[in-house]
Amino acid sequence: MAEIMLAVMPFAGHVAPLAAVASAFIDAGHGVRVYTGRAYAERFAATGAEVVRWSRAPDFDEHDLPATFPALRGRKGARQALANVEHVFIRTAAAQGDDLSAAYRARAWDVIVADGLSLGARIASEHTTTPWVTVSIVPLTIPTPELPPPGFGLPPARRPLGHARDRLLHAALRLGTRGLRRAYDEQRAAAGLAPSSIPFEVVFSSPDLVCASGIPELDWPRRSWPVPVEYVGALAPTGHGDTAPPEWWADLPEDRPIVLVTQGTLNVDPDDLIRPTLAALGRQPVSIVATTGRADAPGLPFPAPPNAYVAGLVDYAALLPRIDAMVTNGGWGGVLAALSHGVPLIVAGGDLDKPEIAGRVAWSGAGVDLRTGTPRAGAVLAAWRRVSADPRYRERAEALGRALRQHDGPREVVSRTVDLLDRRRAEGRR
């Protein structure tokens, strides 16, 4: 049996899949510690893991990031995405590494298994010379030359003009991320590490093993990866299984199609997606289930139409088998959960990884990309009509669902990690 350190950024979207991974390691008999923020300490303790809380690293409230990271105040779109990556994920890396190294000195682990945005895991792995496994809870965004750079949601180019566009975008991305590279170099220096020759594009990815949530059918085709990648399907249970049914659950009609609209759990302004969806579908022959993404804020600040049912969170495992379509901000966990049930998607991907997810869903044929995080009601209505009228969207979603259901993501992370350790031990005996 192995000693596992699991490093998890304290965001709801990161916690659910990594809690499932923690449980899978424990079920297999391994010792598990989890390094995460105070907001989710009890969640991981409930799995049976020992929790190591952020100490030197600045713990934060995911619903009020500017309170801890003032540079994020007033930003949206691309500026928000870059600032989030720099201040939340990169500039906390040295302090995360300090916390993890202290935990290693207290009791050594065999391997550190970290969510794909936990850069402190790389620093801790270098300090402790222990192997590191990345668990990517969002679509992989490792650039490769034959594809457009990640983040734009662009499909592969097929003509010379498209390839020229991609070269320009790669150059622009390198220019636009110079500040992130400087921040990473500064964090390495603060951690007492020498400058790295590793390309910045892969610093978040383990050179030992990357377990990627999802399936190849939801990724752009490419010849190879610069690091070892294994797809493991969906990681989390299909959403909020410990959530009590809302009061209206028994009243949800059985004789009308149900459309779910979810605002996600990070940027949760209901004006962005819930309001236009209610305006679009309020007079249509459907029931609308709207989730605000906040268990402590289950209502809306504006009137809802009579055919709408509103909650903070719902149990996806109970709801998804009943719905006909899902309007989503593009959170990867929710997208995989919906597709696992063969549900076609309408994706409003506004920022961070969401445009990339929206582009992949559209490319896969399982849904419509609205190309904005703040769509107009008319655009939502037109997309819903397309998805409802064309059976190919559901057929494609069902095909992807069959591929996803062939995986057991958490157990596959465990088996891949154990295989890595076995290989390392065998190499050490030679």
Structure write-up:
The chain is α/β, with parallel strands linked by helices. Helices cover 40% and strands 14% of the residues. The chain folds into two domains: 3-234 and 407-429, Glycogen Phosphorylase B (Rossmann fold), CATH 3.40.50.2000; 249-405, Rossmann fold, CATH 3.40.50. The strands form two sheets. Strands 3-2-1-4-5-6-7 form a seven-stranded parallel beta sheet, sandwiched between helices. Helix 12 (354-364) links the parallel strand 12 (345-347) and strand 13. Helix 11 (332-340) crosses helix 14. The longest helix has 21 residues, at 409-429. The radius of gyration is 21 Å and the shape is globular.
The CATH architecture classification of the largest domain is 3-Layer(aba) Sandwich
Q: Please bin the fraction of helical residues.
A: 40-55%
Annotated CATH topology of the largest domain:
Rossmann fold
Provide the gyration radius in Å: 21 Å
* Sheet/helix structural class: alpha/beta
Overall geometry comes to globular
Cα separation of the termini: 21 Å
pLDDT < 50 runs, ≥5 residues? none
Residue share in β-strands: 5-15%
CATH 4th-level superfamily of the largest domain: Glycogen Phosphorylase B
User: For the largest beta sheet, what order do the strands appear in spatially?
Assistant: 3-2-1-4-5-6-7
| Strands, count | 13
Output mean pLDDT: 91
Number of helices: 15
